[in-house]
Amino acid sequence: MDCIFCKIAAKEIPSNLVYEDEQVCAFYDLDPQAPVHVLIIPKAHIASAQEITPENSAAVAHIFEVAAKLAADLGLENGFRIVNNCGKDGQQTVQHLHFHLLGGRQMQWPPG
Ligand code: 5GP
Ligand code: ZN
């Protein structure tokens, strides 16, 4: 499968990895939108949040545990934002489930 995030998870293409375990990995976004901008992905290919099922959702729960740990490790004690863009209306551009962990500045609400 020609999936850039599968290739990053398999280390077939390089990334600035910040965390890895059996289920997930996390790496810095190429085009950061905040002082801290990390992408957290399941290693197994899940195309989008529309594809989360009872069979694969444990990885998603684990991603949120990793997000809390990374936020603490990266100094985001004032808070952070986790974003998932899903599908065309959600402006998803990479078709492998990923969660943006954003922090280090005051976020705005609502999003555009
Ligand atoms: P999406 O719009 O799908 O939610 O976000 C995809 C994100 O992946 C974007 O923020 C983009 O900058 C990032 N991205 C795309 N290709 C690469 C890559 O090869 N390496 C890294 N580190 N980030 C990427
Ligand atoms: Zn993939």
UniProtKB/TrEMBL annotation:
Catalytic site positions: 98
Originating species? Yeguia hominis
SUPFAM superfamilies linked to this entry:
HIT-like
List the Pfam families hit by this protein, alphabetically.
HIT (PF01230)
Motif Histidine triad motif, chain ranges? 96-100
What residue ranges are annotated as transmembrane?
none
HIT domain mapped to chain residues: 4-112
At the top level, the lineage of the source is Bacteria
GO MF annotation list:
catalytic activity
Protein's name according to its UniProt entry: Histidine triad nucleotide-binding protein
By its UniProt entry, which PROSITE patterns does this protein fall under? Answer: HIT_1 (PS00892), HIT_2 (PS51084)
Q: Which PANTHER family match?
A: HISTIDINE TRIAD HIT PROTEIN (PTHR23089)
